[in-house]
Amino acid sequence: MSCSSRRSSSSNAPSRDRREDRRVTIQGVSVFVSDVHLSPDRPATVDLFLGFLAGRAREADQLFLLGDIFDAWIGDDDEGTPNAEVKAALAAVTASGVRCYLMHGNRDFLIGRAFCRETGCRLLRDPTLARFDGEPTLLMHGDLLCTDDVAYQRFRRRIRNPLVQRLFLWRSLAARRKVAADYRLKSGAATAEKTPEIMDVNQETVARYLRRYGAVRLIHGHTHRPGDHRVQIDGREAVRSVLAEWHPDQGEALIHGPSGWHREPVLPSIDPV
Fold first, then answer.
1. Rounded CA gap, 223 and 201, in Å?
2. Which whole-number Å values give the CA distances from 10 to 77, 112, 124, 193, 237, in the listed order?
3. How high is the pLDDT of residue 193?
């Protein structure tokens, strides 16, 4: 189910359509990525991601983008670099028959209906429950799990308020760019003052989400600490798979297919001499 094409008072508004996917039925090969952090300042990472969309992503049946694909998203009307090029590449992926699911991250939560219409992506709510080989699997961006960072959780609740978002999107593009730039500076300074433990997931929160949804696997990004962790939930074992942050020289994708789960590096293409 695609994002609604009904226009609101702001064409940039993030989708609040109640038909957003909450549960997904999966068949075939699935590819998961998050935390690509595309921006004009990271052209090599942009090229790496575009190469991934033109290659490995089209071999999948489903592509899951679990947030922070963009380092900042200030509205669907921003056609600056690399937004337009990435949207065109995503549209080509979905036109090839790949189902592309998108979840908001803490940096690109303003992606809205217009983006979905242009790209063919389907918006997922955070969290979303899916089944792979019959196993209930919880998909999240990951920031909701970092409950030890009380200041961030308070900030998250405020900026996810639809009225706050609408007021921001009513501003000019130039004004929004300035706000986003100021936020990145303040965010970087605040992050530098926090301990690694505060910025990681809270284990009790992880257990609570797994228990609530009856999931045996949790896939998320956000923390930039890739790995697979065993979690004991009421006498049963679950797995928490953390997706990797992308860098100019390498990304990573988590793959599910007939042979089960595995990780694949995403490397820059080498042009023939």
1. 8
2. 10, 10, 21, 37, 45
3. 77
DSSP code of residue 171: S
Distance, CA of 199 to chain centre: 17
d(CA 187, CA 232): 34
Q: How far apart are CA 143 and CA 104, in angstroms?
A: 10
Of 262, 263, 220, 222, residue with least CA distance to 242: 220
Strand ranges for 3-60 from DSSP E:
21-25, 30-33
Instruction: Tell me phi and psi for residue 11, to 5 degrees.
Output: -65, -15
Distances, alpha carbon 47 to alpha carbons 80, 91, 118, in Å: 16, 16, 20
Q: For the chain, how many helices (H) and strands (E)?
A: 8, 11
CB 29 within 8 A of CB 63: no
pLDDT at 273: 45
Q: What span, in angstroms and rounded, lies between the C-alpha atoms of 187 and 127?
A: 24
Q: What are the backbone dihedrals phi and psi of residue 62, each rounded to the nearest 5 degrees, phi first?
A: -135, 140
Task: Tell me the pLDDT tens digit for each residue of 17-43.
Answer: 434 456 777 889 999 999 999 999 999
Residues in the chain: 273
Q: At residue 20, what are phi and psi to the nearest 5 degrees? A: -55, 145
Model pLDDT for residues 9-22, shown as the tens digit of each residue? 344 544 444 344 56
